[in-house]
Amino acid sequence: MVITPITLKTARNFVAQHHRHNKPPVGHKFSIGLCGDDGQLIGVATAGRPIARHYDDGVTLEINRTCTTGERNANSALYGAVWRAARAMGYVRCITYTQADESGASLRAAGFVRVKDLPPRKSWAASSVKLKAKRDETGNGGVARVLWEISRKVEG
Q1: Which InterPro entries match (predicted)?
Q2: For 15-19, 64-68, 103-107, 141-145, which range has the lowest pLDDT when averaged over its residues?
Q3: pTM, whole model, 2 decimals?
Q4: Whole-angstrom distance, CA of residue 142 vs CA of residue 28
Q5: Phi and psi dihedrals of 124, rounded to 5?
Q6: pLDDT in tens, 59-116
């Protein structure tokens, strides 16, 4: 497997085709692809500003989406690659979320630690009449989640 840079458009198309429960991300700071031995794209990861505003401190990056075609260790390779790129860019912390019923094995293999269990909540647009048309019926509303993180010590 080989890590490769990709565009947001490529990542979005891959997620639209292969992700089992999330829509493609809207934006990103960067995206990473993973190619198999035959050169075909077998996984993608997108990273951007944290969605939760209290984590958006300028030095925390959120992995908004990973998606693979199921190859062994592909997700771990993507998480590790995003963290290496984030550190090189000066980020000191990287977070992501999984659904509570997902094991997190790929995250643990990449060095992430489980931080917090989050109870189910309504979708971000659930209470807004104006945003009714933007509601994502297949999104994470009503699903318990887990917050994961990896960080490095700040020098100085």
Answers
A1: Gp66-like (IPR053780)
A2: 141-145
A3: 0.84
A4: 25
A5: -60, -25
A6: 999 999 899 998 999 999 999 999 999 999 999 999 999 988 889 999 999 999 999 9
Give me the residue label for tokens 């990273």. Answer: 47
Domains recognised in the chain with CATH numbers: 2-151 (3.40.630.30)
Measured between alpha carbons, how far is 96 from 63 in angstroms, rounded to an integer? 5
CA distance 128 to 65: 25
* 137, pLDDT greater than 60: no
CA distance 156 to 143: 40
The owner of tokens 């031995």 is 37
Buried-exposed string 103-142: b where 16+ CB fall within 10 A, e elsewhere: ebebbeebebeeeeeeeeeebebeeeeeeeeeeeeeebee
